[in-house]
Amino acid sequence: MTESQPQQRFRDIQFNKIEIKAISHTTVKELIGSLNNKVFDQQFETKYANHMNERVFVFKVIYDGQGWEIRRTVGQFIQLEQDMANNIFYYIFQKKKITGSLETDDPKKTLVLLHKFLQMITCNEIIPQCALTFLEISCINLPFKMKECFMEKKSGSRTTTSCCESLETKLAKWQKRYFIITQQSLLYLKGPEKDKCQIRECLSFDSDFSFQYGKKETGDDNKIIIQFSQRKLILRAGNLTIFIDFIYSLFRSIKDSPYTKLHRFGSFSPIRTSECKWYIDGDKYFEDVCDAILKAKETIYITDWWLSPEVYLKRPVDVRKYAQSSEFLYTRLDNVLKLAADKGVQVLVLLYNALLQFLYNDPKHAKMQLESMSPNIRVLKHPPQKIPKIFSHHEKMVVIDQKIGFMGGLDLCFGRWDTQKHPLFEVHPFEQLWPQIDFSNSRVRDFFDVRNYEATLLKENEPRMPWHDIAIQIKGDTVIDLSRHFVQYWNHVMMTKQNKKKQQLIHANDLKMEGFVPNNTSSFVDYSNVVYTGRKESLIQMKQPILLDEIKTQEVQIEMNHTIQQQEHIETQQQSNAQQFIQQQHKDFQNYQKYEKKFIQKQEDDNDDEDEDQNYYVLQTQQQNQNKQKSKMKMEKSKMKIEKSELKNQGNTEGIQARINLEFFIPHIDMNQNQQSCITQLTRSSCKWSTGIRQTEKSIQNAYLSLIEDAKHFIYIENQFFISNTAGYPVKNLVAQALISKIKEAHEKQQRFKVIVFVPLLPGFEGEIDQSNSAVLKVQLHFEYQTISRGGKSIIEQLKQEGIKPENYIQFFGLRQHELSPQPNSIPVTEIIYIHSKLMIVDDQVALIGSANINDRSLQGNRDSELAIIVQDQVTVDTIMDGQPYVASKFAHTLRTSLYMEHFDMPYEKVIDPLNLQFEKESTAQANINTRMYKQVFACYPHDDIKKVSDYQEFKANKHLDEYDQFKQYIKGHAVIFPLQFLCEEDMNIKVSQKEYYVPEISFT
Question: Which family does it belong to (predicted)?
Fold first, then answer.
């Protein structure tokens, strides 16, 4: 495959396009003084007093629509003239040396003469390379740059644990390299000419960035030592003039970069404004990704845990056309990417390099298939698998032209596409929603040979496992940060042994800078904000700028059935809402240190007590629960009828809390997914192994803790896992403890507060609970139940110990679906809806959407790599909270109510207020009814009546499929009660006799 050159726009120099403007003259000392930094100490300035007073002439070079400043001394002009005199093209100018007639005592005249000299050079049809280098014109097209020049670089000096690092540095050779300082990074190449203009490394300015220079710090007057997250650079300038200009340019560049300090939640990404659109489940998400790819003009970036080239992005697929070259084939991912690549779009894909011995992802197949489609498609796998790594690249991201971003929980792979109806079977014989291998159920039979994508995995009457997920589309400034993460990840992979001599990527800001404004721009204002700084995670108060001009509404058309006065009220409030949000940021992390000290210490103390007392407490609780749970089926049926009649009665009464005529008060809210102008911030879990950075970033966990701490009314969570520190050793993340603290605080203040958690009823691993291959399934359940309700330190147990009724403050639900299998052998079947979402909504104000599960793998930062975005809409809606009028964020509110309407099968008017007691009673009662119906008809697990594995067969024997038609009418929505007593008498931890015992325990948490 030919080597593609993504992002870098290489060019042939067209000399008639070069324009030179004389700007000003100054001295070296005045130039350095303009930085408002103490750049050089008094000893340096005294030693080089003559040089510090040397005159510097500033010119603006304009080429190809771009402009930049160059700063030159007379000495540099003399050197240029000498270099050109040795060039055959300058022979005719040898007798016209301008620098010999300079009047150095009159800088204004000198500036004019030097300007004429440069004009004379650039008016020629051919300009020698030495002149182009003098003007800092190279064959790489970078619209925004600070400086280009040659420097000497010492080889080596990468971040390593080698004991020979010091010796290697001493023996390293000095090499001449061409450096480019941009606003976001330092690049180096072999040279500015087209045949040498290959980016050997793109080193990002970040919070780890620092540099030392001068003899006192480096032992050499002209030496510079620059520290990045990825590596250390040791440079040496050819003379003092180049040295000082390089230092000056570095200072200016890092001053303008928003990435040289950590921001809220300890994130690399600043707070931005973006347009956002949420997705529930995969159908519309896959469709929009497909359309965006087909509209791409320059670049497509994709990162996935698993990518299936043969997955269809638009459904249904007409299986009658498989043998034809028809239009529908182009909705298959590999063909869609080929169409884009054939137009010249550079397609870059990063995949987690899973080993086939452990996972079915087969990234090797994805790489071979995609790269065979076009030379413009490039796929990298990471990490290298010489030694298997137990952690993974788990982020899911698509970025189009560095302008549109897609992210969340959805990989572009088999088994992810679904609708909010979550059918179990195909309903049309030809137009299929899940063609071929995509009709799958990993609980019954996991994928094993994804290359054989035309195979059928399931048998007759075996249902697919529905897939519930959340994702988001972003347009605007945060896409710059998404692109930056991709570039950092890509370049890290490129620096592995097999790729290190290939082309690296450049940051989006360095290429386009759309939506980026330097920090020193006058349109910024300061506000108090909590940020991380330095190498320690200490919290300090700093001022962080945000662009107010971009916090106003982006003229989003909200078609709401409001009065004109209400629309005007919304528009005028948007900017003040944004300012209020920003002003509250200084509170975000005041309690984080308390968590770090108090809860970690408590966890360490508790880990010493995994004990007989806990077992005694659990046994006592189990006996009580067994007595409560045992009842006859007739009693259950009668109870269900009573509850059903209660539901009907409740539906005719006013809300208990809201003494407001809901029909009069509730405005019509447009639920259409037009783009909303939002305040956004990207967070991530990232570390040395995943992206090459030295300091681990766990800003996703920090965001979880901070948002939970700031919650005032309720928290809604959907997640694939729920494993936190209350499970005990070795789990460390503090999400569960933060929830406990928040509930305790609300209880002490006697405030209404609610946490709703949706998690999968079972982990998505193959195997039945009574089979030998269910060890991984059971150990996941072990840690989840230890977090939620067992072991003596769980959420529910800690609340009970404080005299708090857990059910008043926190509830756990799962999702399940039922359906008749297709004819002719039609039977009733049921299957769990697998919750793969990674979502938290707080107070209908803020949403956290990403790829991170609630477990240590995702949240500790140094394990799986993850991405998540924090979203607060600037468009507000009038709603109800705890029976009172309430102004909510439209993005969060519409997402939460849409999910409630899907899960509980209730109209908007009933789910508008998450704290309404009437809604709470109805939703809980309906989930209980659903749970009982599934038990009565299907005898499906998990269920509270199955206390140990040996109960399963007897429980399963009590199904009554013949009663399906009678009872299916009572099942509304998909929500069921999460069974907290399931396998409560079973030790689900891994046994020594099982092969999984020899896998590190942290791989399951």
Answer: Belongs to the phospholipase D family.
What tens digit of pLDDT does each residue of 976-999 get? 999 999 999 999 988 888 888 888
Query: SS3 for 680?
Result: strand
Instruction: Compute CA distances 634 → 188, 637, 641, 925, whole Å.
Output: 78, 5, 11, 18
Mind giving me the DSSP string for 632-646?
Answer: -HHHHHHHHHHHHHH
Q: Which of 216-230, 390-404, 435-449, 541-555 has the lowest mean pLDDT?
A: 541-555
Q: Residue 673 domain-assigned?
A: no
Q: Please choose, from the candidates 680, 696, 779, 791, the residue with its C-alpha nearest in 3D space to the C-alpha of residue 1005.
A: 779
Q: Taking the model in full, what pTM does it have?
A: 0.82
Of 439, 441, 436, 431, nearest in space to 453 by CA: 436
Would residue 68 count as lying in a domain?
Answer: yes
Q: Is residue 62 part of a domain?
A: yes
Pairing of strands 714-719, 884-889: unpaired
Closest CA to 40 of 224, 214, 243: 214
> What is the amino acid identity at position 738?
A
The predicted structure's pLDDT at residue 413: 92
- The tens digit of pLDDT for each residue in 381-390 reads 999 877 667 8
The predicted pLDDT at position 977 comes to 98
Residue 384 neighbours by CB under 8 Å, 6+ apart: 353, 496
Give, for 348, the enclosing helix (H) or strand (E). Answer: strand 346-352
Distances (CA, A) of 63 to 13, 140, 183, 730: 9, 12, 19, 59
Residue 159: the pLDDT is 52
pLDDT, averaged across the chain: 80
- Count of the separate structural domains present in the chain: 1
836, 469 contact by CB (below 8 A): yes
How far apart are alpha carbons 577 and 154 in whole angstroms? Answer: 52
**For residues 638 and 625, what is the distance between their CA atoms, to the nearest angstrom?**
21
Which residues partner with 656 through β-bridges? none
Radius of gyration of the CA atoms of the chain, in A: 32
- What CATH number is attached to the domain comprising 43? 2.30.29.30
Say how many C-beta atoms besides its own lie within 10 A of residue 239's C-beta.
13
Amino acid 437: pLDDT: 82
Residue 787: pLDDT band (50, 70, 90) is very high
Q: Is residue 235 part of a domain?
A: yes
Burial of 24 (0-12, 13-18, 19+ CB in 10 A): middle
How many other C-beta atoms can be found within 10 angstroms of the C-beta atom of residue 584? 13
Percent of the chain with pLDDT over 70: 75
Contact yes or no for 396/864 (Cβ under 8 A): no
Nearest to 795 by CA among 847, 767, 759: 759
Tokens standing for 587? 């509170």
Q: Do 19 and 62 touch, CB atoms closer than 8 A?
A: yes
Please give the span between the terminal C-alpha atoms of the chain, in angstroms, as a whole number: 40
C-alpha distances out from residue 894 to 235, 279, 409, 510, 906, Å:
54, 11, 19, 36, 14
Name the residue range of residue 98's domain. Answer: 9-161+176-260
Residue 708 has pLDDT above 70, yes or no: yes
